[in-house]
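Sample 3 of the quickstart, ligand (2R)-2,3-dihydroxypropanoic acid:
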Amino acid sequence: MPHENGLDALARNVLRQNDRGRYTVPSGGLYPYQWNWDSAFAALGYSEFDLSRAWVEMETLFEGQWLNGMVPHIQFHCVNDGYFPGPDVWGCTSQVPSSGISQPPVAATVARNIWERDKDFGEPRLKRLFPKILAWHRWFMSWRLDSLGAACVVHPWEAGRDNAPDWDHSLARIDVTDVGHYERRDIQVVDPDMRPTKFDYDRYIWLVELGRKHGWDDGELLRTNPFRMADPTITFILLRANRDLVEIGNSLGESVSELEQWTRILEDGARSLWNPEIESYDSRDAHTQRWSGCISNASFLCWYAGIDGNGMVKQFTRLAETVPFVIPSHDPESDKFDRRRYWRGPVWPVVNALVGIGLEEASLFDEAEMVRDATARLIKAGGFSEYFDPCDGSPAGGREFTWTAAIWLDWASKQTGRKTWAR
Ligand code: DGY
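Result:
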């Protein structure tokens, strides 16, 4: 086990190794392009040792912004035949070839944190980014809210939690008999037992084909897409990001009244995700109003969003008594729990970082320290893996992963009690 300072050096190496000049890939073999929230976390990692590079990462992310404000979940800056589905499958007409969906909008929060490290240095860059981030949030508010103000995803990839059991019931309504032939590349790189099943993948591709058929027109897709889930990941992260954008706007002397109105809407939406039947924040099908009945690691993002988490402390304690490493991505007492399969059980250091920061901000220091300590132990023993088995701590998924290295530098290696993020 390397000494912690040795780990810092290794983490920086992971970032450098995955650096493609103006953007950073999540991991070389598995994800060879720029992914949206992975890239924002990379910027956070760079901000620990190279502020200028951190800003470049954020700027490249917004180079791919669509005219309607959407910032796509993948930007294909280069040609790589080893990845599926590539730009031809998405069929988008954007200037930078891209996917047609978005991802959890951590950019405002990350930009604020990078800026706080050196305000004079960051101010001109932040000024240029502000209207772009604002336009992205406006796009979410225009196209992704349900009737209660919760933010929805229109594809499991948009939530970042691809195969979470949250989506099972709603995905099962999709008839995939007309899905075209395709060949997966992910299971050539990673053990198929750690990846989504064919059942899931068929539906992911069916949804991409639907989007392409409708030219990725949000209005058309609102009418035709059977998959629309109010999601705690996007809702809590957008709410936090919106609060951070208000702070940025105030500091820059920009008008923030529209943002403040969005915050109020999202606060109601976030509270609407409380499912009293399972006493947890949950996902909800926006078409049928049916709850998913899932306690996931995203359920614990309430504190990060500044939303009441009293009921979630009990759930946290139960999970911590059930598995040695928190926070499993799905409830270990559920029959859908699968300890090594991607978002159906494994611990994700990057989500732990957000939850841990939220717990600390809510003065739940013991819980915050449990999350940080579990994450640090996983990384020290298993390296900068994509995710980890919550039962025995073994590493899983992709290795030398950018966002795991980034959150090590920014959060997991630091002591709880020292606020690492601006608030
Ligand atoms: C995506 O594109 O976000 C998926 O996670 C790929 O596996």
